[in-house]
Amino acid sequence: MNEKRIDVLGVGFDNFTMEEAVDEGVRLMNEPGAHYVVTPNPEIVEICREDADARGAVNSADLVIPDGIGVIYGAKILGTPLKQKLPGIEFAERLMEKMAQEKKTLYLLGAKPGIAEQAAEKLRETYPGLTIAGTHDGYFQKDETVVADIRASMADVVFVCLGAPKQEKWMAHNGTATGAHLLLGLGGSLDVFAGVVQRAPEIFSKTGMEWFYRLLKQPSRIGRMMKLPLFLVHVVGKKGKTDAARS
Ligand code: UDP
Fold first, then answer.
1. Half-sphere exposure of 194 (CA within 13 A, CB side)
2. Residue 33 Cβ < 6 Å to ligand 1
3. Which end of the chain is more exposed for a tag (fewer CB within 10 A), N or C?
4. How far does residue 188's CA lie from ligand 1's centre (Å)?
5. How many whole angstroms separate alpha carbon 27 and alpha carbon 182?
6. How far apart are CA 62 and CA 188, in angstroms?
7. What pairs with residue 63 in β-bridges?
8. Secondary structure of the chain as H, E, C letters
């Protein structure tokens, strides 16, 4: 693990403010070669504890930012606080502003058929100057077909929205072959950009309750969300072990 990163149960997080993270994203987007960004929440950290491939893909990313208040609490309890919560979707929005200024091109990969096109239409309106070079839904059989399409589009940046840990593994495996400079794993963000799913009202995100709003809207997420208390149990257990080793 990159030693500058803050370790939360085996996942190393970069300790940046939003401003610093966006600057780093812009730098990576202008650097030769392929780079990718991951935005783990407690659910993904828990997946990484069990799945070594997922953990490898997450920790090999060029930028790892904490999506969700749970990771912030976890880092604090462990005695190594992170500067702030950086929701992946807000990071993407800030990056698109910069991309529009720098006339960069974007490819949208993921979600159900039709959603990426709908998101493209909305994003073109919101960020004049941003070119959407291509789109593809997230329910494909062969990586090669999608990789070839991204390559042909010559996109600078790709939003990979296939859900975790599929998107992290996909970027680790296919990032270089796409020819893009920066790939971002963004979960359900295309559904939000397309307007088919609403983000929680600000009061929920400000109070660290965005997860609760999502649960109210989609009660079927309960199974996945049970990973959040499990995550906190593991954090407290780890803290206990570290304290005992010190004393
Ligand atoms: N998805 C996809 N391909 C798949 C599985 C999922 O494109 O094989 C999409 C799904 O349609 C949704 C996104 O990935 O748009 C995952 O959304 P989720 O709410 O699970 O992500 P989160 O934001 O919670 O990480």
1. 21
2. no
3. C
4. 5
5. 10
6. 21
7. 37
8. CCCCCEEECCEEECCCCHHHHHHHHHHHHCCCCCEEEECCCHHHHHHHHHCHHHHHHHHCCCEECCCCHHHHHHHHHCCCCCCCCCCHHHHHHHHHHHHHHCCCEEEEEECCCCHHHHHHHHHHHHCCCCEEEEEECCCCCCHHHHHHHHHHHCCCEEEEECCCCHHHHHHHHHHHHHCCCEEEECCCHHHHHHCCCCCCCHHHHHCCCHHHHHHHHCHHHHHHHCHHHHHHHHHHHHHHHHHHHHC
Tokens 């974007």 belong to which residue? 106
Pairing mode of beta strands 157-161, 182-185: parallel
Q: Ligand 1 centre from 13 Cα, in Å?
A: 22
Residue with tokens 């610093």: 20
Contact 169, 176 (CB under 8 A): no
d(CA 235, CA 231): 6
The finding on whether 168 has its CB within 6 A of some atom of ligand 1 is no
For residue 135, give both structure tokens: 């789109």
pLDDT digits (tens, 9 = 90+) for 58-88: 999 999 999 989 999 999 999 999 999 999 9
- 167 C-alpha to ligand 1 centroid (Å): 9
The span from the CA of 100 to the CA of 96, in Å, is 6
User: Which residue carries 């680790």 as its tokens?
Assistant: 172
Whole-angstrom distance, CA of residue 117 vs CA of residue 119: 5
Which pTM does this prediction carry?
Answer: 0.95
